[in-house]
Write a structure and sequence with these properties.
Shape: globular
Structural class: alpha+beta
Helix content: 25-40%
Number of strands: 18
Order of helices and strands: HHEHEEEEEEEHEHEEEEHHHEHEEEHE
Largest sheet: 7 strands, mixed
Amino acid sequence: MNDRSGGEGRTAGGGGRGGKPRSRRRRAAVVTAWATAALIAVGGAGLGYVWFQLDGNLRGVDIDAQLYGRDRPRDIGDGSMDILVLGSDSRSGANSSYGRDDGAARADTAMIVHVNEGHRSATVVSIPRDTLVDRPACTDSDGGRIPPADGVMFNSAYEVGGPACAVGTVERLSGIRMDHYLEIDFTGFKKLVDELGGVEITTTEAIHDRDSRLDLPAGTHTLDGEQSLALVRTRKSVGDGSDLGRIQLQQTFVKAFIAQVKDAGLLTDPVRLFGVANTATKAVTTDSDLASVSKLTGFARSLSGIGPSDVQMVTLPVGYDPYDPNRVVPIDRDARQVWSALRRDEPVPASALRNSAAGRSGADGVVSATPGAASPAG
């Protein structure tokens, strides 16, 4: 895709074509899918006695089979891992209280989680939902072929072709093969937070957002599931009101959640451990390689040494599309630095982020996590 980042609009993702606000498009948070892995890692050693029940909770998608024969990036095979983590905004079933179900779920918050070769640190790259990308050919739920498309919104890939299309789109964008896939929706997110006992965050200013239903004074709070969901869906009342600002809130929440998981004491409380594990395995959809307790536990254990201060949070470098200020486009030169760093198994350099509109959203520092959780980068 060409770099068309020369212009700046008021907000990114603030509305549909023509600038009309899409207040009903409240987004599910993907952030807890990463924390789900951490939760199972903490309690992994105690899962054997409920093995079969937990195994039956898991849902898997055979992404490799759906992408078989496609032109995919090669697997580097150096011991590092790349996981696409998505959140679904489905309004069906238990999620109906968050808006009208129009028959199509979207994955509007996406994170590529790169775990380094030694599994001691990680880099998380958020992809704004309104990023214009080139989508490869995909297959729909009935097996029909969906032709490729250029310059379409990133979140449309999941809408038209499900998880496999989202993975294929990310691989085309980044040039990096995804090793695994994790997905969570509104209800799973809330239940996971509640089962954990809440997540502690600190707000440096009051947040009152009518659309997300969040009402928090400045100060330290232990958020329950409903409040946590409201926080990571908050956009209009923080910073410049853009989706880029909301991503910063989500990134901070991820660090707070990881810290909470590590301090939860699950190994000493078997009843609570089962509740968390049962909720976590019901909450996620994975690729078929992770869709068993044994594989998911092994994967999660490999992440258990990573704390919040070991996670680098960045947002894909983007600029506002000069043709539509409600969309963003990757800044090609800077985006290449991000993807190159992940391929080399290195942290993303600050030089890759300094031109991004994400750093100018005005939401940085509004919410903070624990002292050991460093602030996310732009």
